Amino acid sequence: MDTIDSQKLENPNTPLMKHAMRYALILSGIGIGFMLIGHYAGWSMESWSFRLISWAISIATVIWMLKEFRDVHNGGFLRMGQGVGLSALTGLFAGIITAIFFYFFVTQISPEFVTNIQDKAIEDMSEQGLSDEQIEENMKYAGMFMSAGFMSAMAVIGSVFTYTIIGLIGSAILKRD
């Protein structure tokens, strides 16, 4: 016996993979473009304004993605699991693409990026009154986490987490079963 949900939901098994890859390319393109604009405009990626605009772009893009998936590709319906799954997959693929670019960016386009972060960390520790020995010890451990490879890997994990959370909230708002 069919349930009301399966009668109502025209495409309950719309595959998410191709949509996630498509949206990941769009998100990555926007993110990479924004990163390059910020870099060449001299805008620090660590600034609150850069981060705020990045968050706004991410939220708007995920909401657009979920709405388009629901209205165009899934017969006007969106289940919570579909929205969260689509967002998580998109975050994974976008994170991988962006991490590859970020690694290239940090090693080829802006090798001073990591050095600037390290210099800022040293400056902050000096302002806190840490001795040179304490700063050196802290930087020895921090150096493991300030490599292009580690930051790229963390970007993938952060992307999946971020887009899953945004997708969870967006799906709760946009869902139609």
Offer a quick outline of the entry.
The chain is an all-alpha fold and 177 residues long.
Write the layout of secondary structure elements.
Elements: H1 4-8, H2 17-40, H3 48-73, H4 80-109, H5 112-127, H6 132-145, H7 148-174
Which strand-content bin applies to the residues?
A: under 5%
Q: What is the number of strand segments?
A: 0
Distance between the termini: 18 Å
Shape: elongated
Mean pLDDT: 87
Largest sheet: none
Radius of gyration over all CA atoms, rounded? 20 Å
Structure overview:
With 177 residues, this protein is mostly helical. The chain is built from 7 helices and no strands. The protein is elongated. The relative contact order is 0.16. The model is unreliable at 1-10 (pLDDT under 50).
